[in-house]
Amino acid sequence: SLSCAVRIVDLYHERTEMSQWITVLGATGSIGSSTLDVVRRHPARYRVYALTGFSRVAELVSAAIEFSPRFIVVPTQSAAETARQLLTQAQQDCQVLVGEEALARVASDDDVDMVMASIVGAAGLVPTLAAANSGKRVLLANKEALVMAGPLFMQAIRDNGAELLPIDSEHNAIFQSMPADYSGDFAQHGIEKILLTASGGPFRNKSKSDLADVTPAQAVAHPNWSMGAKISVDSATLMNKGLELIEACFLFNCHADQVQVVVHPQSVIHSMVQYNDGSVIAELGQPDMRTPIAYGMAWPERIDAGVKHLDLFDIARLDFVQPDHETFPCLNLAKAAFERGGIFPAVLNAVNEIAVEAFLGEQISFLAIPDLIENVMQACPEQQMTCLDDVLAADRWAREQATTYLPQYLLDR
Ligand code: NAD
Ligand code: MG
After folding, report:
1. How high is the pLDDT of residue 224?
2. Could you tell me the distance, in angstroms and rounded to a whole number, from the CA of residue 6 to the centre of ligand 2?
3. Mean confidence (pLDDT) of the chain
4. What distance in Å separates the CA atoms of residue 229 and residue 234, rounded to the nearest whole number?
5. What is Dmax (Cα atoms) for the chain?
6. pLDDT tens across 182-225, in order?
7. Does the Cβ of 72 fall within 6 Å of ligand 1?
């Protein structure tokens, strides 16, 4: 019938003219798979340009079979061979690229509209920066990239007309609670402070002595959120909140003292902005990353994210307490790193990555994580950060230092 034909033309039009091309960096991870779930719900609106993965090649290929990207990116030639075999078996036409240059390429190709930056850690910096430098909408989950290179990253966004949409749930909530025309100046908009909420992690209410022999399995068992191993450990040490404090300062152009960390165990309020007239604006929701992901992808519109509605009667109460800085020194270590500026945030991040990896490998104890970071921070000379090479050099230096300090923390086996 005619109406049917019109509908088909509409769909065709939507798919070819209106579809936006997305690259998902770190597609096999927790954020990556939540992103693909949002894409799955809006096939006319989003098309996948490229998917990248690191270790789980079979999962990456399954996603490629479902979403038909033009490219997938894997880290090694042998992973590429495996991927090509699996793709051929499935008769899936998709080009397989290899290595870090390919990550930057699929983040910056002309046809790409938006890039989900969801590689974990420093490995995500270069491709995320490539997306910023090529004027993309950058969906920023990879907070480590911003922590390492904040001023350079923000400059790259401004200089290239890119759009930066924070995906970290707290920063997404702050973004939603800020004035739509926020200029980067708290005073101009009557903003007093950001209230950054923290769940407190799996070890909230524990003392230092309780934490002496906690295991990686206990540390990654987060009470509210299901996430990758590294960020789960960061949530347990409160380094995640420290990294988020730095992230907030760079994103919203403020001082560390203008960000107050509020422990809120229910994780219903995802963060707030306090104004000088006494108003506090908050975003509330389920602990489900598909909400901030969908918000970032569709902004300024809103789309269904597949997230169940919040039932306030079910929640019934919300609690707020001060963070315990004594038991969880990482928060103050991060604040100090931001305040010292230059390469310090990059150094903090790199040592933390080494420490978390050693803890996950059962080489060092949970309490050794902040000790190791503090030692390397103390040994770190002041240095400005003016270009990407400065950041990468600081990252390398900090990893070397961390590795030389590590033996004194090794657990007896
Ligand atoms: P994850 O471990 O589940 O996934 C990480 C992804 O990065 C995987 O696809 C992996 O293959 C890829 N990867 C790992 N090392 C790589 C390397 N050296 N080179 C290229 N790719 C590599 O992690 P996640 O929980 O999805 O977190 C991803 C990022 O998002 C982190 O920066 C994290 O801090 C941030 N984040 C996550 C959540 C969450 O709920 N999971 C919330 C807020 C922010
Ligand atoms: Mg967060």
Report:
1. 86
2. 44
3. 95
4. 9
5. 77
6. 999 999 999 999 999 999 999 999 999 999 999 999 999 988 88
7. no
Tell me the mean pLDDT in the region 66-94. 98
Average pLDDT over residues 153-181: 98
Residue 96 CA, ligand 2 centroid: distance in Å: 32
Confidence of residue 147 (pLDDT cuts 50, 70, 90): very high
Task: Give the span between the Cα atoms of 354 and 23, in whole angstroms.
Answer: 28
In this structure, the residue with its CA closest to atom 25 of ligand 1 is: 228
DSSP string covering 37-48? HHHHH-TTTEEE
Asked if residue 4 has pLDDT above 90, the reply is: no
* Per-residue b or e along 120-143, where b marks 16 or more CB atoms closer than 10 Å to that residue's CB: bbbbbbbbbbbbbbbebbbbbbbb
Please, which residues bridge with residue 284 across strands? 269
Share of the chain above pLDDT 70, in %: 96
Ligand with an atom nearest the CA of residue 293 = 1
C-beta separation of 196 from 245 below 8 A: yes
Instruction: Indicate the pairing of strand 191-198 with strand 269-275.
Output: antiparallel
Euclidean distance between CA atoms 148 and 342, whole angstroms: 10
Q: Cα(49)–Cα(341) distance, rounded to whole angstroms? A: 37
- Tell me, using a 6 A CB cutoff, whether residue 144 lines ligand 1: yes
The answer to whether the CB of 182 is under 6 A from ligand 1 is: no
CA of 169 to the centre of ligand 2 (A): 5
Give residue for tokens 């990654």: 220
Using the predicted structure, report yes or no on whether residue 15 has a pLDDT greater than 80. Answer: no
Cβ of 168 below 6 Å from ligand 1: yes
Q: Where are the alpha helices (DSSP H) in 205-343?
A: 208-211, 216-219, 229-237, 239-252, 290-298, 312-315, 330-340
Question: Rounded to two decimals, what is the model's pTM?
Answer: 0.95
Amino acid identity of residue 270, one-letter, is H
Which residues, in sequence order, are bridge partners of residue 213? Answer: none
- Per DSSP (E only), the strands in 132-214 are 137-140, 163-166, 191-198
pLDDT (mean) for 108-132 = 98
